[in-house]
Amino acid sequence: MDKKSKIFVSGGYKMIGAEILKVLEQKGYLNIVGRGDEEPDLLDQKAVKDFFNKTKPDYVIIAGGKSGGIAANQKYPADFMIDNLLSECFIIHEAYKNGVKKLLYLASSCSYPKLSAQPMKEEFLLTGHLESTNESYAVAKIAGIKLCQAYRKQYDMNFISAIPANVFGPGDDFSIEDSHVIGALITKIHNAIKNKEEKLIIWGTGKPRRDFIYVNDLANASIFLLDHYNNIEPINIGSNNDLSISDLAGIIKEITGYSGELIFDTSKPDGMPLKILDTQKINQMGWKPSWNMQDALKQTYQWFTHNICSSKIQE
Ligand code: GFB
Question: Which residues pair with 210 in a beta bridge?
């Protein structure tokens, strides 16, 4: 990418989009369009069309779309599905109409089958049933991958897609009910320390294993792929590591200094038993993550203490 290229990142006000914009700027890409209030309503086809006609971006990254943790996916399957389907359809179609040079679509590791062999290789997509807790969202994400492939096949557009592991970091959702596990555990432990509670409820058995990627690594990988990847097949972005949920809780306890006991509420779902990405493809191209889990979690906790929590209890 030329440093003067015009770039649009959808969802630039949320954790992933905001980090991609930050890293783009650090690398000297300053010609950003559709930032903040300038981002069109992505569920309004005419607004997206007018935006593309007016700004004519050279490069597009689709990082927007409603998302959330296991409970939010169960509560809002329609919202998650329609939001992702509409926004990705409108953006991808306008990117084609306006001759965008390259588009990167960020999917999700829940697009893989629930009982997939591990670690999950890109070719395992659509080889089995999806995890029921996030099926609607996963179908919308798979549709995004397929739409990129369809515009490439029919119109020769350089539209690529990537599949990130479970993302976390500064700017994450730290609500207790709807967030992903890391945001939720940080808030729950913060509240437990404030309330002097000696027990911490962890959803599920604590046995599922997840591949967690720090948002800064994901942002760097996304820009790397825009520069170097031009293939029709999606490509995984993972950490080369995985952790059980109980090990994760142990690390967060250590970082926050919380000494209470973990109680596993097995009436809550585990979701996919294992969700670990095979990252050979991107690693062989020359990209590797720079953050280890401990440091990334410390940065996230620090951001939380400076930006989200005051001394009050979090909802
Ligand atoms: O992060 P999480 O919601 O995402 O949950 P998924 C991961 C695991 O942590 C599950 C357990 O086994 C949860 O039961 N867990 C334990 C908790 N305590 C908590 C808690 O307090 N909050 C949460 N949220 N989890 C999501 C998908 O699945 O992953 C999305 O639903 C998306 O569609 C995202 O793909 C990446 O990995 O289970």
Answer: 243, 275
CA distance 287 to 52: 31
CA of 61 from ligand 1 middle (Å) equals 25
pTM for the full predicted model? 0.97
Determine the pLDDT at residue 134: 97
Q: Where in the sequence numbering do the catalytic residues fall?
A: 137
Q: Please provide the average confidence, as pLDDT, over all residues in the chain.
A: 96
308, pLDDT greater than 90: no
In this structure, the residue with its CA closest to atom 16 of ligand 1 is: 203
Kindly give, in sequence order, each residue whose CB lies less than 8 Å from that of residue 109, ignoring residues fewer than 6 positions away: 120, 163, 164, 165, 166, 211, 236, 238, 275, 277
Task: Report whether residue 121 contacts ligand 1, using a CB cutoff of 6 Å.
Answer: no
Give me the helix-helix angle, 77-97 and 45-55, nearest 10°: 30
Give the chain's domains with CATH numbers: 7-314 (3.40.50.720)
Residue of the nearest CA to atom 3 in ligand 1?
69
With pLDDT > 90 as the criterion, what percentage of the chain qualifies?
Answer: 97
